[in-house]
Each structure stands twice: as structure tokens, then as C-alpha cells.
Amino acid sequence: MKFDIKEEDLIIKPYKQSGPIYVREQKGRYQRIRRVMSWALMIAFIALPWISYQGQQAVLLDVAQQQFRIFSITFFPQDFMILAWVFMAGAFALFFVTNWLGRVWCGYMCPQTVWMLLFTWVEHRIEGTRNQRIKLDKQPWGFSKVMKKAAKHAAWLGIAFFTATTFMSYFIPAKELYSQLLAFTWGGLTSFWVFLFALCTYGNAGWLREKMCIYMCPYSRFQSVMFDKDTLIVSYDSERGETRGPRKRKAAREELALGDCVDCKLCVEVCPAGIDIRNGLQYECINCGLCIDACDQTMDKFNYPRGLISYTSERQQEGGKTSILRLKLLGYAAMTVLVFVVMAWWLSSRTPLEVYVSRDRGELSRTDYRGWVENPYRISVVNKTQQQQAYQISIAGLEGAKLAVHGDLSLAPGEQKEIPVTVSIDGYELAKKVSTLTFVVEQASDPSTQQRKETRFYK
């Protein structure tokens, strides 16, 4: 038996053309949706650090003070369990959206995609259209080429620097950060992080581009686990499109022995990942819909119906009907809602007060000349509100005991204070060697805000 195998069939072809990807600018409904979402996200990213709440920056992740303020709530390192809930909620929400709509996060909301397309937009404005950029790169270096390249990279670096500075304003008060920038008084640590983030933004969005999504982002690798036959993905209708081939616009469609694909290759030229969607589902595809807009534009020119490339599912391509009421999707939705509900319950039941009780360094107990037994303690109180607060300490569970507080319990917002206290009781009334004692620390203005800490009293 002899198989007719050609040598080129044994070569594994790359996912895209070799060399740099020159993305053609494209207009259309999905591009409009992306631009609206991109502008909304970028405006929110830039404006959020400038929003004030009760005279303070509304969102500030103050690492130096170990306080993370989000409007009326201040989180401390002790509250980092909230991060686990946030990550779980985000993960299940991402699984739900991916199983339903494919990689729309990558195509419409991922910062890498938003900034990559922003950098591409700048490149298009300075260096020209796709064909002009290809021609420019092939030209020998001259004054015009140097000026265009310098202007492009200067604009990229400016955007990257502004992005990094805005990002740092989430960790350093924005007014302080920008006033120090204008006065050239940034410290070494601030300068290091701003320039590092600027370099990462410039490198990722300007140079690495699609390589970040394809080679470095793990999401593209495990997305297929969340896909099923009902997941909406960008797909090419091969039954309608093949056999592809060029033709004149006025050529009668019925007389051609060809499919609807005119092989214009616009779907490849507008793809930021450089893939050919006509080759089937590929993990490099970020579901951005640019190829759909390009193909619909071509179909309109030839008076063909739109939808040769569209958001569809494998089941729809097979002639079936996609249902949103499927077990996998409902499971992801239920887990997403459950995690958000638990997180909301945890936040609502969170007490804006933290108390720690430790024994004083020294002897566990001492007896004075009257026969009274004393136990020294240290109570650490954290004011987790954004207002000045006064606190009161009392004891419970040890009848006849007296409490002496050696310090002031008035705390500034976010302040932590440790004060010594002494608990004493008549030794003749204390039968046990070890008794249970409870410290009750409550907010003076609102006694319902309290913490109870149990400890031991030694005779």
C-alpha cells in the first residue's frame, strides 16, 4: 500500500504569518462596542483616584500604613480573607462568562487588549495605514522614517508613563504624587515603581502585543476546558464560504462555482493575533470580533448576506439550537452568585474594630499585701473606621474582679494602640487555680460595635 504524502504536509505550519503583524484599522459594530467599553474602563481607571469621600481619597491602597481604603470601608492585613473571596468570585464569574460567550473578556475588557489597540491606534495615526506602515518598514533609514518612528515611540512612552503614574496613584495619594512630580521631588522608591510599570506597559502594548496573549497568558491555554458545544465563539461558516476565491463585484453569485468567501484576506489583516479564522477555532483567537466587522463590510460590497464570520456555537453550526439553560453554565452561575452572597454577608457582618489580648511580659500573677491576686495584660485595639473613636473596656465571667486601665483609648482613624490593664480579685474568693475571663471592648458612641476576647486568669 502506497500513501501519496507530500513533503510540505509533514511541516507543522505556524499559527500566523512570520514577521511582525501589521493590523489594519477596522470600523464596525463590534469595534464601536469595544471603543465604548475601552473608553469607559480607561476613564474609570484614570478618574477613580481623584474621587474624594469624606475629605479623603476614596480608593487608596496604602501599603506603607497597611491600610486599604475603599470609600467607607478600610481593610487591614487581618481582613485579607476578603481577597480570597474576591478571587473566587472573579474566577467563577470568568468561568461563567467564558462558558457562555467565549473569550469576550480578552477581546473587550482585558487591559492588555485595550492598551494594545490604543498603541495600534497611535501607530496608525503617525505612520499611516497598514500598507503605508509595511512600506515604511521596508524603506532605508532617512529623516522622514526616523521622525515618524521617534514620534510614535515618544507617544507610546508618554502613554506608558501616564498609565504607570495613574496606577501608582492607587497606592500613593494622587494629589501628593502629582505635586511631587511637578516639583521633581519623587523619592527613589516611587521613581523605581513608576518607571518599572511604564517600561512594562511600553513593552507589553508596544512590542510584545499578541505574544503576551499567546505565550504568556495562561487563560488562553485552559479556556478550552470551559468551552462546550453551546459556547459562543467567532466562527467561519465553511459550508457557505467554500470554495473561496476572488471574483468581480458584479459577477452573478448563482453563476459562480464558488462559495461566498471572496478570499480578500481582510479577516487576517485586521486580526490583532494574526490568525486566519477560516482555519477553524484556534486558542490564539481572543473573540474580539474584528474579523466579523471586516467580513460583513466585504459581504455588503458584494451584496451577500452578512454572517459568513459570526458569533455562533458549534451546535448552531451543526443545525441545532443553543440553549442557555444547560447544567455547566447554570452551575457556574450558581457558584458565582453564591460566592458574591457569602462575600456580601462577610462584609455586612464585619466589625470595624479589632482587639488582641496578650499577657504582660513577666510573672503570670502576683499577690499584694491584702491578699488580692493581680494578673497584668496588654490589650491592642485597632480602629478600623475612618473617624476618631473612643473605646471602653470591661470584663465579664469573673465575678468580683476589678479592672484597672492604664492609658487612654481614644484612637485616630486606622490607628492601633496597645495599653496595659490589670485585673485583680480577692484571693480568698478565688477557688480555682485557673479561671476564665472575657474582655469586652466596645465603641463609646455605639456599644453594639464591640469585640469579646476570652483569656485565662491565674491565681
What does this structure look like?
- The protein is of the alpha+beta class and 459 residues long.
- It contains 15 helices and 16 strands.
- Strands 8, 9, 10, 12 and 14 form a 5-stranded antiparallel beta sheet that branches. A 4-stranded antiparallel beta sheet has the order 13-11-15-16, with no helix packed on it.
- The protein is elongated, with a radius of gyration of 32 Å.
Termini separation comes to 97 Å
Shape: elongated
Helix content range: 40-55%
Mean pLDDT over all positions: 90
Per DSSP E runs of 2 or more residues, the count of β-strands stands at 16
Question: Which value, in Å, is the CA radius of gyration?
Answer: 32 Å
SS-derived structural category: alpha+beta
| H/I helix tally | 15
Strand content: 15-25%
Give a short account of the largest sheet. Answer: 5 strands, antiparallel
Spans of at least 5 consecutive residues whose pLDDT stays below 50 are 1-15
Summed up:
By secondary structure, this protein is α+β, with helices and mostly antiparallel strands. The chain is built from 15 helices and 16 strands.
